[in-house]
Write a structure and sequence with these properties.
With about 375 residues, this protein is an alpha/beta fold. The chain folds into two domains: about 1-225, Spore Coat Polysaccharide Biosynthesis Protein SpsA, Chain A (Alpha-Beta Complex), CATH 3.90.550; about 230-355. Helix content is about 55%, strand content about 10%. It is built from eleven helices and nine strands. It has helices at about 10-30, 45-55, 70-80, 100-110, 130-145, 175-185, 210-225, 225-255, 260-285, 295-320, 330-355, and strands at about 1-10, 35-40, 60-65, 85-90, 115-120, 125, 160, 190-195, 195. The strands form two sheets. Strands 3-2-1-4-7-5-8 form a seven-stranded mixed sheet, sandwiched between helices. The chain is elongated and about 85 Å long. The model is unreliable at about 360-364 (pLDDT under 50).
Length: about 375
């Protein structure tokens, strides 16, 4: 069976056209199917019209009054689906209904786990799109290249084998459920050419908020795809703030407490390392919150001292044996020493200071 999921909001004019079209296409191809309308409590009566269609067509209707949003609606539709394959498409007739068999067939034949309708493969396109819309679409696709190879990850038209959704921790933000499913399930994907048409009835939901949500969603997916890189980036940011703390304490103790700079540096180091420990525990390695504070702090300080030794050792080797003892080369030697120490400090913090038996899963 094929389950076609239509997330809706204020699609009263379109729902009464698209449901009969979907059912006709499925019947013409001798495909057993159902249409699932998940409506976000539309004030224009979309859900009521869809319910009336159930008298003549295999339609299920679910009305959501809280936690609304397209992606969340689709996930609820997945939970209601009885079909072996779920098709997700917009209810505004922008996705070509006649392409449903082409979207489903490769999955039935075992060639892939999911298909995505693409405007950017041979045979695909978009009708009457202004230049600005094309630029936004292309730009959104380029931003997603680090998490998917899809040419058109924002098309919104997808078919997926329902079995691969089981166990996937889907937590989408905004509208782009296709990206969420493809990245989180690691499905084998094929792209099917489609010609996208602008809606005739109703208003577009693509506004500034949707674009901001897309960027936030991409950030989540990059964090999911590259967790180690994200942790390292956070670690470096905390380290930079620690440098500010170190400098502020040093200058304050020397200029206002009249301490010897070498003696003041000890307190500055203690303040900075404590600052770094706190924010790495709370932010960079959030699973490390369950590690005992006393032992993890001692480990963290020891690792930082070890990192300092590595920095000095790298500088010594480069200055003594690589001719970097003269200006400005010793500055480069210092930077290289800092880079080596940063990597050492990060790995030591992650796998020693903030190591826990079971890392709790937290949102980035």
């Amino acid at each position: 069976m094929i389950s076609v999921i239509l997330p809706t909001y204020n699609e009263a004019q379109n729902i009464k056209r698209i449901v009969p079209s979907i059912v006709k296409v499925l019947r013409d191809e001798a495909m057993d199917g159902e249409v699932i309308v998940v409506d976000d409590n539309s004030p224009d009566g979309t859900a009521g019209i869809a319910s009336n269609l159930a008298d003549s067509y295999p339609v299920k209707v679910q009305v959501r009054k809280s936690g609304r949003g397209l992606s969340k609606a689709v996930i609820e539709g997945f939970g209601m689906a009885q079909g072996d394959i779920c098709v997700v498409m917009d209810a505004d007739l922008s996705h070509p209904v006649e392409k449903i068999p082409a979207m489903v067939r490769p999955i039935l034949e075992g060639k892939c786990d999911a298909t995505v309708g693409s405007r950017y493969v041979d045979g695909g396109g978009a009708q009457n799109w202004p230049l600005a819309r094309k630029i936004v679409s292309k730009g959104a696709g380029l931003l997603a290249k680090g998490v998917t190879v899809l040419s058109d990850p924002t098309s919104g038209f997808m078919a997926v084998r329902r079995s691969i959704l089981q166990g996937a921790e889907l937590d989408p933000l905004g509208w782009k459920i296709v990206l969420e499913v493809v990245v989180k399930t690691r499905a084998r994907v094929m792209e099917i050419p489609i010609v996208f048409a602008d809606r005739i009835e109703g208003e577009s939901k693509l506004g500034p908020r949707a674009q901001v949500d897309y960027l936030r969603h991409l950030t989540r997916l990059y964090a999911y795809q590259y967790p180690l890189l994200l942790e390292f980036f956070k670690f470096c940011l905390v380290g930079l703030t620690g440098l500010v703390v170190d400098t502020a304490v040093l200058v304050s103790l020397v200029d206002y407490a009249y301490l010897d700079p070498r003696f003041a540096a000890v307190f500055a180091f203690a303040a900075a390392v404590s600052w770094n420990y706190l924010f790495n525990r709370l932010w960079s390695f959030r699973y490390g919150r369950s590690a005992p504070i006393s032992s993890s702090y001692v480990f963290f300080v020891s690792i930082c001292l070890g990192g300092l030794g590595i920095r000095i050792g790298v500088m010594h080797l480069l200055m003594a044996y690589a001719g970097m003892g003269v200006r400005p080369w010793y500055v480069l030697a210092s930077f290289m020493g800092i880079a080596a120490a940063t990597v050492f400090n990060f790995l030591g913090s992650k796998y020693v200071a903030f190591r826990t038996e079971t890392k709790e899963k937290v949102s980035p």
